[in-house]
Design a protein that fits this description.
The chain is built from 16 helices and 15 strands. With about 450 residues, it is α+β, with helices and mostly antiparallel strands. The chain has three domains: about 60 residues, Up-down Bundle (Transferase, Pyrimidine Nucleoside Phosphorylase, Chain A, domain 3); about 250 residues, Nucleoside phosphorylase/phosphoribosyltransferase catalytic domain (Pyrimidine Nucleoside Phosphorylase, Chain A, domain 2), CATH 3.40.1030.10; about 90 residues, Pyrimidine nucleoside phosphorylase-like, C-terminal domain (Aldehyde Oxidoreductase, domain 3, Alpha-Beta Complex). The two termini are about 35 Å apart. Bound molecules: uracil (URA). The site of uracil (URA) has 9 residues, from helix 9.
Length: about 450
């Protein structure tokens, strides 16, 4: 589209939504295209985004908005993948972002160990949530930027690839996301759903499993909002011909014990070696079951390939194929400090958001786009809900290369653990499954 369309202009699009009316398909196609080409100004798009946050969009509008973002760029195609003369099915996983969420690291090689191809296009950290690419870059030599040809070769030979999305996929989303980030317009179900699904559909995966987070560490903490987000994304995926399912999972408490970069890789390797924290194993296996089911592989227990070393073999092949050395020691922080319990009792809650903020302040995340992160930075969480603690016991160990960051991280962690007199009711990691038609 040229950025012009008869009878449509930025102000009428903004006022339609401002006044609570649905946008037409023509208005949506025009405004997304015109913004991508610099015809609609950022201040106009900001006004429209805020109107969408406040007024919402119906499923038809969300679907048209998503397609317009897909149409702004190229679409990848993995339908021709094969190994030993057999067509390879592709399945991907996307998490809405959490604290300590390293699940992609054990999950992609685990699913690939069953002969399914996993093209996992991942991102970098955003605010208090960590980024898969930042974590993997703590492995000496590993690189995130692959050409499409390299991705295809790796998928056919190794089965799993975790790499950066090409800038040509859904460029409208990249522009809109940057604007939303600085205009207070991230927290909107239509905008989050269309942002995530435009990238996933453009990426060309055959099937997709969504891990939609609920709780303090999630972008949309409330369970009802998370359920609506999950149902909206499943609907978008299925209508675009991508077999899609979603799990709602708890993100009130950090996942596992480690939040940061190298510390999360180390924990993932423990899981691939058949150990690791029970909640990380539980979620990895639950998501693997979903992915394998969508890929047509049933009657397997994915925990088996964690125990027998096949998932670890896939991991080593995946890291090596991207230039990494799976045997190299991971970077370790020069400085550590602890946060201790001020009182005795039973841990009622460990606040995921506070732990994410602390890891970010220690240097695991960025304050401005493009900033480098510290591979060594992070938080190790020593307690979980239900644990008994005594005053003076260690609750958290903070890791950083720059000790002047400890004070800010400590400020985030003080009060992050609620200690009470009673054993709390602990919500399971996997809260519910959301299928098409919900
Ligand atoms: N992740 C995305 O890709 N987009 C959003 O809007 C939120 C999280």
């Amino acid at each position: 589209m040229s950025g012009e369309s008869v009878g449509i202009d930025p102000i009428s699009v903004i006022t339609t939504k401002r006044d609570g009316r649905a946008l037409t398909d023509a208005q949506i196609d025009w405004v997304v295209d015109a913004y991508t080409h610099g015809v609609v100004a950022p201040e106009q798009m900001s006004a429209l985004l805020m109107a969408i946050v406040l007024r919402g969009m119906d499923r038809r509008e969300i679907s048209t908005w998503t397609q317009a973002m897909i149409d702004s760029g190229a679409q990848a195609d993995f339908s021709g993948l094969s190994r030993d003369g057999r067509r390879l099915v592709t399945v991907d996983k996307h998490s809405t972002g959490g604290v300590g969420d390293k699940i992609t690291l054990p999950l992609a090689p685990l699913v690939a160990s069953y002969g399914v191809a996993v093209p996992q296009l991942s991102g970098r950290g955003l605010g208090h949530t960590g980024g898969t690419l930042d974590k993997l870059e703590s492995i000496p030599g590993w690189r995130a930027d692959l050409t499409v040809e390299e991705m295809i070769t790796q998928l056919e030979q190794v089965g799993a690839v975790v790499c950066a999305a090409s800038p040509g996929l859904a460029p409208a989303d990249r522009l809109l996301y940057a604007l939303r980030d600085v205009t207070g317009t991230v927290e909107s179900i239509p905008l989050i759903a269309s942002s995530i699904m435009s990238k996933k559909i453009a990426e060309g995966t055959g099937a997709l499993v969504l891990d939609v987070k609920v709780g303090s560490g999630a972008f949309l903490p409330g369970e009802d909002d998370a359920r609506e987000l999950a149902a909206t994304m499943v609907d978008l995926g299925e209508r675009a011909g991508v077999a899609t399912s979603a799990l709602l999972t708890d993100m009130d408490t950090p996942l596992g014990r480690a939040a940061g970069n190298a510390v999360e890789v180390a924990e993932s390797v423990e899981v691939l070696a058949g150990g690791g924290p029970a909640d990380v194993v539980e979620l990895t296996v639950a998501l693997a079951v979903e992915m394998l089911t969508l890929a047509g592989v049933s009657d397997v227990d994915p925990a088996e390939n964690l125990r027998n070393g096949r998932a670890m073999d896939s991991w080593r092949a995946m890291i090596t194929a991207q230039g990494g050395d799976p045997d190299a020691p991971l970077p370790r922080a020069r400085h550590t400090d602890v946060v201790i319990a001020e009182q005795s009792g039973v841990v009622a809650r460990v606040d995921a958001r506070a732990v994410g903020d602390a890891a970010w302040r220690l240097g695991a995340g960025r304050s401005v786009p493009g900033e480098s992160v510290q591979a060594e930075a992070g938080v190790i969480v020593h307690v979980a809900p239900g644990d008994e603690v005594r005053a003076g016991e260690v609750l958290f160990v903070m890791h950083t290369q720059t000790p002047e960051r400890f004070a800010a991280a400590r400020a985030a962690l003080v009060g992050a653990v609620d200690i009470g007199a009673h054993t709390p009711v602990v919500r399971p990691r996997v809260i519910e499954r959301v299928r098409f038609g919900a």
